[in-house]
Amino acid sequence: MANAGNFLGGGEDPRISIDAGAPGGPIAPQQRLLHDPAVSFDEYHYYALRTRAEEDSAQHLETGHKTGILQIIFPPKNGPSAVSTTPPNESPGNDEKRQGSVTADTNLTRIDQRLHISNEEWTNASRALRTATWAACFYLITTDILGPFGIGFAIGTLGWGPGIALFTVFGLAAGYGGYLLWISFLGLDSYEFPLRNYGDLAFRIYGSIPRHFVNILQSIQLLCSVGLIVISNGQAISQVSKFRLCYAVCCLIWAICGFGLGQVRTLQRFGWLANVAIWINLMIMFISMGTIAHSPPNYSVAAFGSAGATTVPADVTPDANGVFPPVKHYAGLPNPSSLIGSINGLMQGVYAYSGAQLFIEFMAEMRRPRDFIKAMWGAQCFIYIVYMFYGCFVYGYQGQYTYSLAYLGVSPYGWQTVGNMLAVLSGIIAAALYGNIGIKVLYNNVLMDLFNAPPLTTKKGKILWATIVPIYWSIAYIVAAAIPDFFGLVSVVAAFCAVQFTYSFPPILALGYIIHKGAMRPDENFDPATGQVTHFDSGLRRWARGFMKGPWYFSVLNVIHIGAALATAGLGAYAAIMGMIAAFKDPQVNAFSCHSPLDSS
Question: Cross-referenced Pfam families, in alphabetical order (predicted)?
């Protein structure tokens, strides 16, 4: 396979072509298959460098524009940070001429409709799809309803020291993973060969099988994430109704809401929604902190989903007179013999940084992908500072009674209602974002690849999208609702999916990218005039050179990172599976029942 580059094979590299002037000529990018194994890493990298140069050139033409604080807080749909869809050396007045045969109804996935498209028309069509700014991406990254409200619970299951230390380490590792995805994306994405999703990046570095594996795993996580938010919103509504409304109906309401909100197709449009979601989350934090500081914990839900119930059940069990134990804190692990409970709590904390699964999709729709690093580090710092403060505050006041969703652990009914209603609004926005990416992964890799479905920019594509959205949300609801242990499901998704996309896959992909790039000698090149790639060696010798030229300490760091991430994922998977086994032995309420799991009566 050309783009996999025979990483482990010692035979001749199929890309070797000493005769750069071989007959046949190049094949234009628009005449390639969507995921063509014949396209080499060198070709992807050549066009990526050319695209980055064009973006840099456009940036120099915009040096007089400044991004003000209001543009960051309220990102505009169009602004000076945009990369023009007109190449730098061409007049904007030629747009109509350049578009040529590329119309709204052109199905770019079909070879027969792309044969008559010129190179300029092809690249301009790719430029037109990139509309998101870095400020919008900042809000998209931080839109995560499960993140802030599970940190107190994670600290409660780990204790002060381990909880804060691990959350800090995971934050730094998540930021490093985002950086690795960024450098890999910049080196392989171009207008000629645009990267669309996480699986595309895996394909260009390792080949088709890793691409399918990543796409399947990402689809599972996004589907479960949508379902989890539907269920958590259902729990909130059931609590607001004082459990008088059927629990199954409470959850179903939000699945139906997703039918409408899921019709938003572009991430730029999600920028405003994500902006709103963050401010809502901050309001919930401030309201819940004020309430928690002046009221006792919500003892009625202590036996279900609290930190104490997970690690030391005796800490949340009332005595013969119905009096609950006082609030208790632990400096270290609350129960060293209950490692499974602590690890499951840690997986809740991991969810705060699980947005890396969407980073490639965000960069794919950015006008200037180089700016993504600002959005990513800004979001990671925001998440760490705000979430850590909130988690420590909640655990400091509620101790072992800290609930897995902090706003549900507030005892006064009035403030419960305020927090719940705000949380469901923020949650449905996050679910719509996950659903948007999830459907795009399904659409681009199944419907377009296998069934030649029309692009989403066409009228037929829009109709097909509108049809798929309710089906997707219905499946997400059914999958999540059928599992009786909400907390356990979060742990399973975090261990099998979130840890991989945030911590395991980035160094694995970056290591392959570094080796490919480092193995390229100065006298080797891709010639766009002939379409030929010139290599002078292959096999282990070539990959060893790439590893050492990484530089070697960067490559070694990634190998260590991979080992640590896989070990964490394995530990989390074991704890999650054991927890789910225990949950199914002791039947709990699922979302097909009218009885709410929060109702202890």
Answer: Aa_trans
